[in-house]
Amino acid sequence: MSQSAVNKDDSGKESQASDISEAIIRIAGNSQDGIQSIGGFLARLAGRSEQEVMTMMTIPSTISGGPSIFQVRLGTGDVLSPGDDADVLLAFYQHSYEGHVSNLREGGLIVYDSDHVEPNDEWLKKYRHIGIAISSLTVEAIGGTTRDKGKNIYALGLIGRMFNLDLEKLERLINERFAAKGENVVKPAMDAFQAGYRYHSDDITNLFNFKNGTVDRSNQVVMSGNEALAYGLIAAGVRFGAAYPITPWSDIMELLRRELPKYGGSFIQCEDEIASVSMAIGASYGGRVGVTGSSGPGISLKTEAIGWAVMAEIPLVIVDIQRGGPSTGMPTNVEQSDLNIACFGGHGDSPRVVLAAADVEDCFYTAIEAVNIARNFSVPVFLLSDQAIATRIEAFNEPDLKKLCQDLAPDLTPVQSHKPYDLETETGASHHRVPGTRIEDGRYPVVTGLEHDEWGHPSGSPETHKAMTQKRRNKLKALAKTLPIPEVYGPESGEVLVVGWGSTTGPLYEAVEKSADNGSAISALKLRHINPLPEGLEDIFSNFKRIYVVEMNDGGVYGYGQLASILRARFVDARIQGINKTDALRWKVWEIIDRVNERLSADPALTND
Amino acid sequence: MSENATLESLTQDTEEREPLTKKQIAADTPTWCPGCGDFSVLSIYYKLIQKRKIYHEKVTTVAGIGCSSRFPYFVQAHGVHYIHGRALSFATGVSLSRPDLHVFAFGGDGDAFSIGGNHFMHTARKNVKMTYVVMDNFVYGLTKKQTSPTSPIGFKSKTDNWGAFDRPINPMKLAISAGATFVARSSHTNPKHLLEMMDAAMDHDGFGFIECLSECTEFYKGAFDPTNPRKGGVFDLVPEDHDVTDEAAAYELASEDFPGKFGIFYKAQIPTKNALETGLQDAAKAKFEGKEDWEILQSTFNRMK
Predict the structure, then answer these.
(1) To the nearest whole angstrom, how far is the Cα of B162 from the nearest Cα of chain A?
(2) Which of A42, A112, A590, B180 stands the most exposed, by the fewest C-beta atoms within 10 Å?
């Protein structure tokens, strides 16, 4: 939101709404206040609103009773990232007020519950304050017997009023949300909402008005990254999975447990991570593409079994919703520090595929891609997401489900003969014949983790080990040839190319936009395929003087993050440098720009140029 | 799918095809040491497949790591040589996703009760449909004589030169207390009895567990002589009046000192994990009858607009 967006004009009693194209609103309270459902409502307003409001919501995981926030970015243009500092802070308690002021941009607006918050004199000078007795007004609106339950919906009304949101559609959403719970829930909710929406104060009425947008959002769906990933797996035809609960992976398994039976599938909660991955591989062996998933520590436990799937050449999809590590680390924070374990985790030479989803929509499509690569190349595929993508809600164009949905029923067609580890296939990939398949010549395959010959018999032959190691590696090279060359975001050539993956790419793209506005253009490259890398990256790199790999992980002993190290090893290109951070918080756009500039000015090679 | 449905589909096949010969079922030559008890278990498995008129493609043999876990290589059928201790989890994945197959898992005492102990308990309590035969030799053989979870106190191994002092696991007690629904005990020295047990385990709709004593002639020679009448021992059957549905009685039987009894200790009919999951699917699918998968997903997406 531009500086001028907040209406600072105190003189006019009839406030005129400022036209804005986007706003970042942070709401802070306790988790039992249901404030995250405000975000849900605002998000679901996307796709439905004539104002074409796009939403990106960030929900930090919390434990019940603790402080809870969400931040929503509403905008009518392309919203690339969840945004940096908030324009508006809605604070329910003193701790919410004090704890989140630092996330408000200078001159921002604080709306606080005057029943619980005592404004700070110093901050009164820096930020615009509006105090509203949210708690008591909610009690008054609902009828006084329910304490302040419902103040989330009251606050939603306030926000609706401040931003001139579509009243009718918000009311319909509230009705839909609570209809199943009966009239005695719908009515108080509606009362609270309307009381909030009708709250009369010159301070708050029609503060902002969203400009008409440029993007057609008439047919959008709204969901979190974890939901998109899970539904992508279902669309891909996955009908079996197994896992163990861990944050922030768990909602995917909960969703699949609930949804898969509708499609004749099952998702099994196991006794541990090792059982989970083993069960998923078992189902893959049985002819399904089995899925397992976890976060950091759980992935470590699965690595031996993943090595088996590499060796035995059985399809498998492993989802890793990355969080702060190592060990138990920071379970509810974001980090991109599992790239190494995804690419290299385990003993021996064990080539596997690693894909990284970049945003919520991408989670849906990458899930389908992961399943298909696993099937076509008989290989384990890591699908990396992270806590930031997993928990945030975005609106995106509705996928063409009729076209995308796949049927992956096991193929039991009898065959004359079957060599499970044929060295002569075109791509090097084996074709797994599943149990139940009749093999006419009576020679049945044993799939195994022992080094084996083409028939699957254990073999200690040096020649066989060489040939089979090569086979397992070459199929990834064959895959690389099929991968699309990523497109550069921003100018095709220039001084600086920032390279990123996962949730870092949104802020990177926005940094490109901001830099272009400031006349110091940079370009960005998003990598979705990390192992193997797509071909043609060297051509892209050759158009830039500096290649900065921006990641949420440590630069390590030698100063290069996990992707940077892979790219340096691959391209032996000294221009590839790392820009890393380890605060376990997502990248802000200004942080990226500052760090790029800092690096540029410290780089003698470039100043001499 | 129930056991009956599986057997029905198998029976249909028998009408079209000749039963398999032993030669057709046998695959690679076993790599076990001469005299190893595992040979008899393998030959009984061949006999079972012949007796039950099963065809190659309808049976899946899964094993972990260990001497006995080499088993699948020696059987001409779809087979899996998985990682150490996790055969049951793998087999569960096969069993739950492929109701048309009969899943057999084989392994040793280390695989089952040490590294795979957790999976043993949970596969038992979930009552996943499969037959699990543990060839218990009281020692680690593949790695050449270390103490196993069933090695008796005083057993001298390379990791307990002075004699093992950790109390061994009692597999029968473990299985019963974990909730296994078919618990039987046999020995490689009595092939007829083993076949009887495997036959019964296969008929059982649920998790069928057999502890089969199987001598390691290399590292624990004579361990099971007390169970072998030819070596002066006794092969005592479970008393005829034992009530196999009585869990407490089964536990009491399992608590007897070595060499103990042989036969079916415990058997319970409770719904299998397979049936419960299928029930869940049937109920969920009923709400979407006649709908294609994409339409079901579409209806979910319509609520997210």
Answers:
(1) 33
(2) A590
